[in-house]
Amino acid sequence: MITKESxxxxxxxxxxxxxxxxxLSGLHTLDLRVAPGTSSQIAVAGAxxxxxxxxxxxxxxxxxxxxxHALCLAPDWWLLVGFHExxxxxxPLKDQHHFSVVNVSGQRTTIELEGPxxxxxxxxxxxxxxxxxxxxxxxxxxxxxxxAPVIVYRIAPFRYRVMVRSSFxxxxxxxxxxxxxxxxxx
Length: 186
What we know:
Blueprint: E1 12-16, E2 19-24, E3 29-33, H1 39-48, E4 60-62, E5 69-74, E6 77-81, H2 86-90, E7 100-103, E8 108-114, H3 118-123, E9 140-145, E10 148-156, E11 159-165, H4 169-182
Antiparallel strand pairs: 1-2, 2-8, 3-6, 3-7, 4-5, 5-6, 8-11, 9-10, 10-11
């Protein structure tokens, strides 16, 4: 078995001006495609047990243990993050149901930002509105951050995760650290 090497090698700058920035290396990530409202989606959701599939693009759900997330990227597309047993649980359904599940763990790395100034740091690099009214907890969005394609999701009041393609990881990391250093606590 080949072990994926992190493009950031587990970087962690600790707290920079009231924002902690760290890489969450090696998050198990699966691309799930299944037609909404079908018996296949119902079977897949049932097999995932404690992890529900949110029905609205731009939303996410978290597992009961708080370790796994299902990010709804389109009506028929979910990114399952941190759910190590998903492939094993879905395998028996392959013969009876139409869906696709692909391990995409090597495509992206995840950078977690947390702290009272996190929204201000991200706002320097992200054009989308991150205020509570527009981007509440469990929100997900795709776009460009510092010219890097990313998926941003909010998991707590002052905690966001940014998933970035591995080839852009170091560039985005440096840009986030610079933005954090420029953001002064109020």
